[in-house]
Amino acid sequence: MKIMRFKYVLLFFISLCIFTNCSIENDVNKIVITSDDYMKFNTSKITVKSGKLVKLTLKHIGRLDVQVMGHNFVLLKDKVDIVEFANKAAMASKNQYIPVESNEVIVYTDMIGGGQETTIEFLPPEVGVYNFICSFPGHYAMMKGKFIVE
Ligand SMILES: [Cu+2]
After folding, report:
1. Which structural domain range is residue 35 located in?
2. Does residue 12 fall inside a structural domain?
């Protein structure tokens, strides 16, 4: 009986170890980007390691409302034209400026306003260089950069 209980306790700790694996935490690509009231990201280049989960946080360190100065992070698939995509996105106001049923996007965050932040987790696409933009109307001209998977 005691041995049985010991087994369950052991099993419990093993599964705890698997589900909350802290060593995996070191294996995560942790990215924090800030955006502001001046229509800017703080970086135009993000580099991540292939095969490792990306945990990306977008912060809006400005004060303006999401309706006026909303920002998001949109990672575009290879060979997607930024201008063409952004023009379509600009019309998708009801869908957080992401074209409905778009197959041009790898991943995107919520649209946020001043003082807010949002986090997404995803597995990076295959090794290569991708474009990221903010899809709020008109922002892509200044808010864009390269997302490099190596
Ligand atoms: Cu923006």
Report:
1. 26-149
2. no
139: CATH: 2.60.40.420
Give 88 Cα–ligand 1 centroid separation in angstroms: 15
Residues whose beta carbons lie less than 5 angstroms from ion ligand 1: 71, 134, 136, 139, 143
pLDDT digits (tens, 9 = 90+) for 90-131: 999 999 999 999 999 999 999 999 999 999 999 999 999 999
**Gap from CA of 110 to ligand 1 centroid (Å):** 11
Residue pair 79/106 in contact by the 8 Å Cβ criterion: no
- What is the pTM for the complete model shown? 0.83
Q: How far is the CA of 77 from the centre of ligand 1 (A)?
A: 19
In a domain, 83, yes or no: yes
